[in-house]
From TrEMBL:
It comes from Tetrapyrgos nigripes. Belongs to the protein kinase superfamily. PAN3 family. Residues 449-543 are annotated as: Knob domain. The lineage of its organism: Eukaryota, Fungi, Dikarya, Basidiomycota, Agaricomycotina. Residues 16-32 have a biased composition (Low complexity). The pseudokinase domain, the coiled-coil (CC), and C-terminal knob domain (CK) form a structural unit (PKC) that forms an extensive high-affinity interaction surface for PAN2. Regulatory subunit of the poly(A)-nuclease (PAN) deadenylation complex, one of two cytoplasmic mRNA deadenylases involved in mRNA turnover. PAN specifically shortens poly(A) tails of RNA and the activity is stimulated by poly(A)-binding protein PAB1. PAN deadenylation is followed by rapid degradation of the shortened mRNA tails by the CCR4-NOT complex. Deadenylated mRNAs are then degraded by two alternative mechanisms, namely exosome-mediated 3'-5' exonucleolytic degradation, or deadenlyation-dependent mRNA decaping and subsequent 5'-3' exonucleolytic degradation by XRN1. Residues 145-469 form the Protein kinase domain. The gene is PAN3. This is PAN2-PAN3 deadenylation complex subunit PAN3.
């Protein structure tokens, strides 16, 4: 610290829960806090409503980093008596904001196999590092997951959003953070939907973890935290990306008017050449989405975002609806009729089926509808078309998710059968892994015992007593040779010997000394006892 300078002495960082009103402050102090005053850093975790009171604006944590710079030794510092200069931590990476140099001015303008031309590389590195905070609430090591270039970004309603993977410091796990840029939260009650979503557990819904607002990105952002599914891709990326350029089709209901206004209306043409998604896969997607919607509607909520760009493919034919809860927070201020929103879910569901069947995100809009019907009739069974038409129909008296269930009943059974077969298959895979674990444990014990140079001050420990039997058995398993003296590398022999050893069978085996002057006939059970005894001796001494 420079002598003679008067520094702003910040209040203790965690003295002020987010909902408490700021304590009256002296005038200068107040002016220092001004930039934050309009910003209301609400936060909400689905883990517990009590946590609501424990969230802080990240911008405050910036202040906290200065706390150690100042003497807080109980001395009365007249920090409000002088208009003190405030040195806030600024993002100093100005160089990252400069435009990309034209390629003629950079040293390498040519592509290499791994590295793009300098100008492009620079842009890539910029976009990777720009404005990413080192820490965000309890999250660190942020890495962007967005796959689209800045120029192709789609809006999430009125706002741009970005997705990051980050590690939570309290549990060390990875999470997906969706950040809505430049969003000002006006009422904390907007987070009540996140609490409700936190209770929704469904195999086809990406779990909502918590939400908070932050200034760590140098704006006021909303962040909703979701379960992270490694290697997930959106349905759009998997099926539509190569054939369409503007896929986002949000709801057209009254309640979504403001979101709609932001939508760019594009007219992707039906691509005559695309590989249709197999009907079995389409039905699988339908059953999964229907089941997710049913769960949500039964919880008196609406999904509000059923779109190819927001549904994740997380495994073979496995999908999960992502981004749940965000629209509820974004649209909190406009009155929503839940029944209408649920009907709108079904309409979006119908549009999704059309989009997937016709390989066109705008299959039901922009004058594409008739063509889409033709494509659908040509490629898929009438049941899919009937269902999709029912879903997008307006004013159908019986339009609800239970009616959908009745229409897809037989497909649900097929799905259930396949899911049970999949479980059996996975159980088998797991069983073989269990075998591996048993064998690896045995091999580790061999490794500890065989050829041990010395134990209990006996350099011949591993060659004598019970250990001699272990050594001969090791030779029997691994070091056999055929009549020509060539090594026998028969893995089945090894696996069957080790399995019998692990089980400790009564079967006997003849172990021959290397000089072939002596042999021993012992059972697997006895060899197992020798190994257990030798290993216990070692581990006892180790302890
Ligand atoms: N919960 C999650 N777990 C793992 N990856 C996710 C998760 N949510 C989103 N992603 C990935 O993050 C990337 C960006 O998602 P996003 O929804 O922003 O798609 P996008 O195509 O970039 O659309 P937009 O232009 O709307 O931002 C996608 O590749 C998606 O697979």
């Amino acid at each position: 610290m420079d002598k003679g300078c008067i520094y702003y002495h910040p209040p203790p960082p965690d003295s002020q829960p987010i909902m408490s009103s700021p304590s009256p402050s002296p005038p200068d102090y107040q002016s220092i806090q001004e930039p934050q005053a309009a910003y209301n850093p609400f936060g909400y975790s689905t883990e517990s409503t009590d946590q609501m009171n424990t969230f802080y604006d990240d911008s405050q944590s910036q202040y906290s980093s200065y706390a150690s710079d100042y003497d807080q030794g109980g001395v009365d510092i007249p920090f409000y008596s002088t208009p003190a200069p405030v040195y806030l931590r600024e993002p100093l990476n100005y160089h990252l904001y400069t435009p990309t140099l034209p390629s003629v001015f950079v040293t390498s303008s040519t592509d290499s196999h791994f590295v793009p031309p300098s100008s492009e590389l620079r842009q890539t590195l910029q976009s990777r590092s720009l404005n990413l905070p080192e820490e965000l609430q309890e999250y660190h090591t942020l890495a962007p997951l967005d796959t689209v270039n800045a120029s192709e970004r789609r809006k999430f309603g009125n706002w741009y959003s970005a997705v990051y993977m980050a590690i939570k410091s309290t549990d060390g796990r990875a999470y997906a953070l969706r950040r809505v840029e430049n969003f000002r939260l006006m009422h904390q009650s907007a987070f009540s939907a996140i609490e409700a979503w936190g209770h929704i557990q469904h195999p086809s819904i990406v779990r909502v973890h918590e939400a908070f607002t932050t200034r760590a990105f140098n704006d006021s952002s909303l962040v909703v935290v979701y379960a992270y599914h490694p290697d997930a891709q959106t349905l759009y990326d998997v099926y539509l990306k190569s054939t369409s350029s503007l896929p986002f089709q949000p709801s057209r209901s009254q309640s979504f008017q403001s979101l709609d206004q932001a939508v760019v209306t594009a007219q992707p043409i039906h691509q005559p050449q695309f590989t249709p998604i197999p009907e079995r896969t389409i039905w699988s997607y339908i059953v999964q989405i229907a089941s997710a919607i049913k769960k949500v509607h039964e919880a008196k909520l609406a999904v509000r975002m059923i779109d190819t760009t927001k549904i994740l493919v997380t495994g073979k034919n496995r999908i999960r609806i992502g981004s749940c809860g965000i629209v509820d927070v974004l649209m909190h201020d406009s009155h929503q009729d839940m029944h209408l929103l649920q009907l709108e879910d079904l309409t979006m569901f119908g549009r999704l089926i059309f989009a997937l069947c016709c390989n066109n995100a705008s299959a039901t809009t922009n004058g594409n509808f008739q063509k889409s019907l033709e494509v659908m009739s040509r490629l898929y069974s009438p049941e899919i078309k009937t269902l999709a038409l029912f879903l997008i129909s307006k004013n159908h008296p019986n339009k609800n998710i239970n009616a959908v269930y009745e229409m897809i009943g037989t497909k649900i059974f097929t799905e259930l059968d396949d899911a049970l077969i999949a479980t059996d298959k996975l159980e088998n895979e797991l069983l073989s892994e269990l075998e591996n674990a048993r064998l690896v444990r045995l091999l580790c014990k061999f490794g500890f015992i065989n050829e041990r140079p010395e134990f209990a001050r006996d350099p011949r420990w591993s060659e004598t007593g019970d250990r001699y039997i272990i050594k001969l058995f090791r030779d029997y398993v691994f070091h056999q040779s055929d009549e020509h003296g060539n090594p026998v590398t028969n893995l089945s022999h090894v696996l069957s010997c080790l399995s019998k050893l692990d089980a400790g069978t009564d079967e006997k085996v003849m172990l021959v000394a290397r000089d072939e002057q002596s042999c021993l006939v012992v059972s697997y059970k006895e060899i197992k006892a020798c190994i257990d005894a030798a290993f216990s001796d070692l581990s006892r001494a180790g302890r």
